[in-house]
Structure formats: C-alpha cells, structure tokens
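ok so heres the complex, two chains, lmk if somethin looks off
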Amino acid sequence: MSQSIALSHDAHPASRGLMRWIKTTNHKDIGTLYLLFSLIMFFVGGAMAMVIRAELYEPGLQFVNPGFYNQLVTLHGLIMVFGAVMPAFVGLANWMVPLMIGAPDMALPRLNNWSFWILPFAFTLLLLTLFLPGGGPEGGWTLYVPYSMELGYSFPFLIFAIHLMGISSVLGGINIIVTILNMRAPGMTLMKMPLFIWAWLITAYLLVAVMPVLAGGVTMQLFDHFFGTHFFSAAGGGSPLLWENVFWFFGHPEVYIMILPAFGIISEVVPTFSHKPLFGRTTMIYALASIAFLSFIVWGHHMFTSGMPVSADLFFMFSTMLIAVPTGVKIFNWVATMWKGALTFETPMLFAVAFIILFTVGGFSGVMLSLVPADFQYHNSYFVVAHIHYVLVTGAVFAIMAGVYYWLPKWTGHMYSEFWGKVHFWISVISVNVLYFPMHFLGLAGMPRRVPDYAVQFTNLNMISSIGGFVFGAAQLIFVAIIFTTIYGGKKAEARVWEGAHGLEWTVPSPAPYHTFSSPPEVAG
Amino acid sequence: MKNRWLQAAAGAILLMGMGMPPLGAASLYNLPYGVTPMSHAIYGLSMMAFWIMCGIAAVVFGAITWSIIFHRKSRHPKPADFHESTLLEVVWTIIPFIILIVMAIPAARVLIRAENVHHSEMTVEVTGYQWLWRYTYPRWNINIYSRLADSSLKIAPLHSGLSPYSTPHYLHAVTHPLVLPVGEKVRLLITSKDVIHSWWVPDLGVQMDANPGLVNSIWVKILKPGIYRGQCNQICGWGHAYMPIVVIAKPKAQFLAWVKQWRQHHPQGAASPIPTPDP
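and the predicted structre for the whole thing:
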C-alpha cells in the first residue's frame, strides 16, 4: 500500500517513449494528447476547407468532381466538430480542471485514458472511407436521410465512427462531472468555482444528455439500411422528418457544447488582462445554465423550411429568440469587466477581445435567422455558412487559441514569443473576416450552401472569400510553429505567468509538475 | 410619456426597415425585394432586424472600443474594482427582451400569413427528383419536367474546357420553366420522389423542403410578369448544384394561351420527355 502510494507520487511518468503516451493515466499527459490530436484534425479538416475554397474560387469545376466535393463538405464538418473543436476543449478540461479545482488528477484516470484512445480509431475509420469504392460519406454532417443511407460502403463505417466518438465524449463528460463534483479542494464551494469549471460542468451534462440521442438516431439509420426497419421512410410508416428532429435535438445542444467552454475561457482571460475581477460572476453562471436549458427546446429552428406546422414554427422562433437574452448578458458582463480596467493586450487578450466582437457578429446573424419568415430566405444559404463560421471559428476556435496562449506557459514552462503571437493574431483576425464576411452577402444574394459550382454573379465575393481562406489557413502554420518552439525552449515562465491572474493553477510552478495537489490546497474562505 | 417615446422609436425603426424597397433591381449584397407580397414582407423584416442589429452593434462595439482606447493600462493604470450591479444586470436583461418582442411581433404576423394557403386560386404540384423538378398542373393535366439546360450542362463537367461566362444564366437555366399567372394566389404542393430537396426562389420569397413521402404546401402570388430564378437548396447528391428552378410569370390571358398551346403539343398530358440528367 505504502509502496504504491510512493510510486504514484513519483515525479516522472511510469513508462518512457511511446508506451508512456499509450498507458498514461495522468491528466496532463492525456490533456496534451487531446490537444495534439485536435491540432492534427484541425489541419486535416482545414486542408479539406482549402480544397473547397479552391474549387469555389471561380465558377465551373476546376479540381474536384461534385461527388468528392460533397464528401469534402461532409468530412470537413464532422472532423471540425468532433475531431478538432470538441477534443480541444476536452484537452483543455483535462489539463486545467484538476489544476483549477486543486485536485491531484481526474476522478477516473483509466476511463480518461480510454476516452482519449478511442478517438484516433474513430477518425481513422472515418477517414478510411475516402479510400473505399464510392468514397466517403456525402450527405453533409447533418446526415439527412434518405440521402445519407444511399451511400455505399462508407455508411456502416460512418455510423460506427460516430458511435465511437459518442462513447468517447460521454465517458469524457462523465469523468469531468465526477471530477468537478467530488474532487474540489476544501473550501471551494460550487459558487466559488472558476467560470471555466462552471462552463465545463454544464457542458459535460449536455454531452452526457445528447450524445446518446445521436447514437440512437444513427443506430436507427443503420437498422433502416440493413435490417429493413422504416423509421425514416414514409412508405413504411416512418418519416424523414423524424431524423431531422432527432438529429437537431442532439445538434443544437451540440453547438452549445462547442461554445460554453469557450465562454468559460473568455471569462478567465478577460479579467486577467483587465486586472479587474469578472463582472457579475453569479449572473454569468446563471446565464450559462439558462443557455444550456434553452438549448434543449430550440432544435426546430434548424427545420423552419421542413414543413413544420405554424404553431411549431412560432414556438421555436420565440424560444430561439430567448437565447439572445442570456447570451447578451454574457457579452455585456465581459464588456463591463473591461470597463475602467487596466487593459493589457497580450496575445490571449487579443484573441479574447476578437472573440467578444466576432462572436457577437455571429449572434446578430443568429437573431436574424430566428425570424422564421426571414429564414425562408436565409435557410441553407451562405448566410448560414457565415453564421456558423462566425460562432465556431471566430467564436469557439478563437477562444481555444486564447486558452492555448493563456495556459501554454503553464504547460511548457516557457513563454511563447509575444511578437509571433501577435503576428498570428493580426493575420488571423483580418483574414478570417475576409474569409467569412462576404459569405453573408453571398447568402443574401441567393447562393446555396454545399454546391461545388455556382452562377457567375457570385464570382467576385467567392474569390475574396477564398483568398481570405488561404491566408487564414496559412496563418495557422505560425500557430503550430509557436506551440512547438515554446515546448522546446523560450524564456522561463514564472508560476504566476500573468500579473493579473488569480486561481489555483497559478500557484503551482511552471511547467506544472507531473503530479500536482497531491495534498489539497487551501482555498481562502 | 416615456412609453410614447418608446413607441415612436420602435415605429421609426420599423419604418426604416419596412418601407424602403432597395435602390437597384437585383442586389449582389442583399436579399432581393422580390415580386410577391411575401418577399416584400420578408425583405422588410430582414432590413428591420439588420438595422436593429446595427444599433446594438454601435452600442456594444462602441463600449468595447472606448475601453480599448481609454482603459488600457498605459492610460488608465489603476483598475476600478467594481464587479457587480444588480441594477445593470436587470437593465441589460430587460432591454434585449423588449427589442426581441419588437422583432417577434411582425415576424409572427408575416409567418402566419406565409403559411395560410387557404383561398388559393390554382394548384401546382412540385416534385423533386435527383436531379430535376416535375411540375404538374392537375386542372389541365400538364406535366413538365424541368432540368438544367443543355447550355449549362455541357459547361459544367470537370475539364469541359468551356467557360461558365459563355452562356447567359449559367446553372440558372432550365429546359422547361414553370409558368405561372400573375396576380393569382397559387398553391404549390411540394414533395420528392427520392431524397430531400428544397424549392427555393428568392424573388418569390419561397423556400420549402421537398420531403419524400410527405407533401408540403406553400403559396405564391406573383405581382409582376418576368423570369425568376432559383435552385435546389438541400444537398441531394451529385447533381445538387445542377437543379435550377426557373419561373416565368405571365399575365393571366397569356398564361391561358400558354396552357392551350402546351395541351395542343402534348395531347396525352404526359410531358416533355423525361430527361436523363448526367451533368
């Protein structure tokens, strides 16, 4: 007994080399694995986006056939959602949750290892479909039936890959909930938890609640395809709209799964660099919870043109508009946090401020989309593409980048190059707007999404957008270079990396030792 | 007094959005004003929402910009330490709520009008196929198969060597357009024979999914003769981008003449030959 305790308190990993990473149950190792995996997927999905933007640079087909284009659109969505954004947030949670609540590790370390190692298999399966006869899945990441079920060999691979991703997410979610509820340092009551922890606690509940819905839905597709059931075919008494309902009942909470942790990061970064406590902490927590609740009753707003009865349209319009209230409260509170602070603009703060502004732009188009009759024009147009990318790229991804720059010195023990961080930020923030802003106009003028070719009047805006896309894509190479040069060298970071930072993660040395908080820290009453 | 001021402000915003048709005929940067009562109402709603969003943006982004300029550490080295205000929280919960109600009421009214297909004077059945549309006029037993025009079809493939600029309305031209009378409330019954498609013509303010095995209804009342173009708006396979919609609106007399002519040319009621789309 005493021996095993002594072993577990060893300051180094038990194995070396590759086996260390395969066998690890250490939350920091697993956090690193998640983050690296997410980075790779970010580039795989990004490469697909580059091909898409190249094809759309001018009308006519130049590089790919329409079928392959549809596969790219589908895989880009699936990879960015399940492979890039979600694992990045789970990686941040793995690294930071124990450090921020004063716990020695995650509550269920072996489960943690498993929930990560499922992911590479899931995405290998998904990407393998590209090499099957008939290629990868084509129906868009929404997998609308019956198109999705018409696919050839890729269909069962797709379903199984989604099941694996779902298992990984649910296990990760359970682990985070259990850790936060049971392993907080004495004195850290729920209301004293950092906002990032609050955001992740709520997100984890969303994960556990909705991933099984997706799993159930894709299983029904599997049964329809192979076992002769008719859940989704009207001819057999089912309905293709059942899938849309099931998918979006999962899908809308899913988009909040991708934004609530971002809210958490921004709520850490903004006070630090404003040198001022977060404004309206309690309200911020209630706002998070309200958004999470509302996310379960708005799914129909993705289906306004599907032919729902007018009463359902009205309900989903009103419930969707309601989301703007707590989301607005969050934005106002961040602005009030900055107000009369002593602002400094290190790279994490630059990304955080860009997040607040550009996420709000995405929120504006979101409110416009909620107006059902207007949605009859906006629906499935490039206006929607602009909206989702403003909330997911300049929203979720910018928040991830803010978080990475914010905590990278804590992870590596080195300061990143502030100069190159700023270069990365400025190129990204300019190019990302060149990339996505023209898409609003394209959609309003009538360009549908998910087409490889378009009428010639859309050419100019597509060219501008593509140029922005290439620059934005290339700028991310700077991000990778910064991360790796910081891992391997750079100015030594202090324990409290940022002058204005508060919280338990800043009380441990940088880099954070392999084992931290083996005995719980004191949290001031 | 305060109430009246609020009403005046809301009215001004509504007028700003609702009243003004766009300057140009077809904008490359905005919704078309369109040619149906619905497209006009939608345009108004969209502009109203747009201007309200601009107003909110001015306030929020103004405050952020102010902070960035005047509350940076070099100018404002000593941060204030306020961090809560129940009054402020209540204010910025209630104001957005009111703004949302201002938008929700007109939106709900337009929606209820848009979904009311009663008292329509004529019905056309719209059926989506991979990758063409069929239009059926039950009253006259007319069937029209409408697929991408050959002029676009020969340009579209990879390495065709032909320029999309070499034909008018590339990807927005069809073999046989849908012909509708001006000034009549036409009910469209929309369905699909294979996967989900979506029938979208921006100038008509109509977008409705075509679901296999289910029938959706929507109505249009075109106010101006002309040619209006759109396309399928739900990813439906290989040919999703090659499924355009062209609607020709003719005055009633000309429309009836067209019906007569069509029936003379197609006495069996069966249609233009069923094309095999292979772009």
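quick notes: The two ends of chain A are 34 Å apart (CA to CA). thats all i got rn
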